[in-house]
Amino acid sequence: MAGWTTLVQPDILAMALNRGDLVVVDCRFSLADPAAGEQAWRRSHIPGAVYAHLERDLSDMSRKGEGRHPWPEREAFLQRLQQWGISPATQVVAYDDGDGAIAARLWFLLRVLGHEKVAVLDGGLSRWVALGLPASSALPQPQPARYAGQFDTRRLLDAKAVEAHLAAGGLLIDARAPERFRGEQEPLDRVAGHVPGAINRPYMQNLHNGQFKSAMQLAAEFRELLGGRDPSEVVSMCGSGVTACHNLLAMERAGLRGGRLFTGSWSGWITDPARPVATGP
Q1: Which residues form the Rhodanese domain (predicted)?
Q2: pLDDT tens digits, residue range 23-37?
Q3: Which domains does the chain have, with CATH numbers?
């Protein structure tokens, strides 16, 4: 059976909830209250959904100097997948409150692991609820699975690799809001601005009325940004390597596969005060 590899619509997922090869993962998370997403999941979630915590399950917060949400170690992430009942054959669907920013982090983690059948719920739980689709407070008890795999580290860049990428003429796309990119506001990190040479594509531009734009529209917009470059020559970044994954998901929806991630992103870049900082457009 062909799988969902980028997005899935709520009504389609609702009809597939009893599939034996399906695992739905609730990724709701708030930087302002890191416990809120899990608490919300315990109260109500898509039936059968397990919960993924951004800072416990999708990051390794013990790693220092690699930004606010460091990329997790392979073994720890594989262990979590197994606990959720995810195997290489599983169709995974990730969702969050709505815009897909956190769900896209799980999507990219799995994609870099070589997992093809993973998609984000378009419109998230907000659209699911608005459509009157079922919810549950019953906590799932998944059957443990087996998962072996390796991250494709060619798609994961640190700050030194990003410097080399830019020096070679590569494209670096920053997914943060324009005012943060320009250095006018910085609510999260100690330094405002952006990596010199980066361009700004706020991840919210991938959406229209809370859902992803069409593949055709995204393709037109990203091809203009790429300026003839191959998608593999694109590195995506944001504040901490989370919303950057939203741009990578949008690119793949548009048929532009192979984009890479600056895992530490802005919060990783500024750990070294000797690195340059740009402000303005």
Answers
A1: 18-137, 166-278
A2: 999 999 999 999 999
A3: 7-130 (3.40.250.10), 153-269 (3.40.250.10)
Query: Which amino acid would we find at residue 142?
Result: P
| 238 catalytic per annotation | yes
128: left (phi over 0), alpha (psi -120 to 50) or beta: alpha
Q: How far apart are CA 108 and CA 6, in angstroms?
A: 10
Cβ atoms of 47 and 135 within 8 Å: the answer is: yes
**Run of H or E residues at 235:** strand 234-237
DSSP 36-71: HHHHHHHH-BSTT-EE--TTTTSS-TT--SS-SSPP
For 110-169, how does the pLDDT look when each residue is reduced to its tens digit (9 = 90+)? Answer: 999 999 999 999 999 999 999 999 999 999 999 999 999 999 999 999 999 999 999 999
CA–CA distances in Å: residue 4 to residues 28, 37, 117, 185, 236 = 21, 25, 6, 37, 23
**Spatial separation of the C-alpha atoms in residues 127 and 133, rounded to whole Å:** 9
DSSP of 185-226: --SSSSS-SB-TT-EE--GGGGEETTEEPPHHHHHHHHHHHH
pTM over 0.90: yes
What does the pLDDT look like over 219-266, one tens digit per residue? 999 999 999 999 999 999 999 999 999 999 999 999 999 999 999 999
204 vs 148: CA distance, rounded Å: 34
CB distance 147 to 88 below 8 Å: yes
Catalytic hit among 7, 58, 159, 238: 238
Tokens of residue 235, six digits:
């590195």
Strand 118-121 vs strand 156-157: parallel, antiparallel, or unpaired? unpaired
CB atoms within 10 A of CB 187: 10
Longest CA–CA span in the chain (Å) reads 54
